[in-house]
Write a structure and sequence with these properties.
Elements: E1 2-7, H1 12-25, E2 28-32, H2 42-48, E3 57-60, H3 63-69, E4 74-78, E5 84-85, E6 95-99, H4 108-113, E7 118-120, H5 132-146
Helix pairs in contact: 1-2, 1-5
Length: 162
């Protein structure tokens, strides 16, 4: 099971888009407070459209509460400062990918303490970062690619014959 963890998300539209990605993939969503919006924010709901009933969401009052609940779990931290690339990791079946807030990312202290579990998405030198919802989608689909998209619908209705 993939678990997406958002630490102090600030932009409701990003969280809504991420919730929609979680709904489409079956990933669990973990939201760590404080957040820059209320859960009933219209922008959040609009971005998630009608997928909210498909999302398994857990809320935490702070980052310490999240770590207390998941101290024995496989955590990976996405940051632009890591040396390893997200696709170089062999994700375990139960993985938690942790993302920081849009304006600051994860704290330097946290990243240093977990350096071996930090990964990044390659970008050109002049780019500061990707949009949070895009970064989540990229890493989520890498996790599922490694699992041969297990549990996800693989076929469509179109064929080469028309």
């Amino acid at each position: 099971m993939l678990n997406i963890v958002l630490v102090e998300p600030e932009i409701p539209q990003n969280t809504g888009n991420i919730a929609r990605t979680c709904a489409a993939t079956g990933a669990r969503l973990h939201l760590v407070k404080p957040m820059g919006f209320e859960v009933d924010d219209a922008k959040l709901k609009r971005a998630g459209l009608d997928y909210w009933w498909l999302v398994d969401i857990t809320y935490y009052d702070c980052l310490d509460a999240f770590f207390d609940a998941h101290k024995d779990d496989s955590l990976f931290f996405l940051t632009t400062k890591a040396g390893r690339i997200y696709s170089d990791i062999a994700y375990p079946d139960e993985a938690y990918i942790v993302f920081g807030k849009e304006t600051k990312g994860l704290s330097e202290k946290l990243l240093r303490e977990n350096y071996e579990k930090c990964v990044r998405i390659p970008m050109v030198d002049d780019a500061r970062s990707l949009n949070l919802s895009n970064a989540v989608a990229i890493t989520a689909y890498e996790y599922y690619r490694q699992k041969d998209f297990s549990g996800l619908k693989r076929g469509g209705f179109l064929s080469a014959e028309g």
